[in-house]
Amino acid sequence: MTEDQLDAERLSRAALTRVGELGDAELGRLVARLGPVAVLEAIRDGTLPSRRLPGYQARLPGLDPEADLAACERVGGRFLCPGDSEWPTQLDDLGERGPLGLWVRGGQNLRHLAVRSVTVVGARAATGYGIHVATDLGAGLGERAWTVVSGAAYGVDAAAHRGALSVGAPTIAVLACGVDVPYPSGHAALLDRIADDGLVVSAFPPGTRPARYRFIERNRLMAALTRGVVVVEAAYRSGALSTARAAAELGRYVMAVPGPVTSLMSGGVNLLLREPGVVAVTDAADVAEQVDQIGESLAPPRRGPVFARDSLDPVTARVLEAVPRRHPISVPAISHAAGVPADQVMRCLGLLRARGLIVAEGAGWRQQPGAGP
């Protein structure tokens, strides 16, 4: 393919991101069969074999892909097409519903960042618990060289981004609007910082405003881009749950952080944990263990405090329980209380004394104070 043909294909794909919508399987199927240049020409001359042709043609007035490319460049962005060296090939799993191109703002390489990436999503109206967990996840994953992907929304999304940025790790914000549109407006500074250290990504051309239906397809895009999705907090009706469902459909790992059963913001995530294949995680180590290559990032074993008495055999443990904490008692008294013969009590007392669990006082024995852990 000549350079002129590549430029024509790039311009056509850029135009089609404005003519169609992310997730339009019919448009995706036609582009795969005919090519983007032929599809755009057929839309313009009214010969495209699609029932959606009138809708596509309604967006032709004012269509100017070169102006869109220039607008993206003005904010430090670029337009990526399938086949580019920076294109994440895992997006092919979306098939005909995949993006025709991606508008990307920032200096990092999208393909490189997405190779080791995890999506962290959750409630916008997050509780202090959710913010704390999401921030720790973002920081912990960043320290482990995992890229955190989220949607830059209020609540859990922003906390995950900020957690990654706090440890100097890049993060990716995937938007349901143009990369030049600060949404939500209160996160304009956060999006600028994400673009400086990571990437802001969208399947929608510059100037596109967010819409409810665009968030649904954006969530599928986030799920496809990464190895797995972690849901931190989510009510029963939550966009975060749609991201988890999309991840499951695409064969990605689905993880959830359990929340208090008394919290409405954890109702959806606790329900999600009942679904087959969903794994409960509590920190970045748990997440890395799930999404990394088998055996590479095993989380440390979780257990309570270990006490010296935990390894005692049953008889010795009974003898220890028969020894008072304050007032020493004799061997016969210990034998009577434990129901263990006196000669066996003596052997047990020797072991307990060697472990620092008891002390001799006169003719009696008592437990060593503070001989716990």
TrEMBL record:
Residues 79-291 form the Smf/DprA SLOG domain. Gene3D superfamilies: 3.40.50.450. GO terms for biological process: DNA-mediated transformation. SUPFAM superfamilies: MCP/YpsA-like. InterPro entries: DprA (IPR003488), DrpA_SLOG (IPR057666). It holds the Pfam family DNA_processg_A. Belongs to the DprA/Smf family. This is DNA protecting protein DprA.
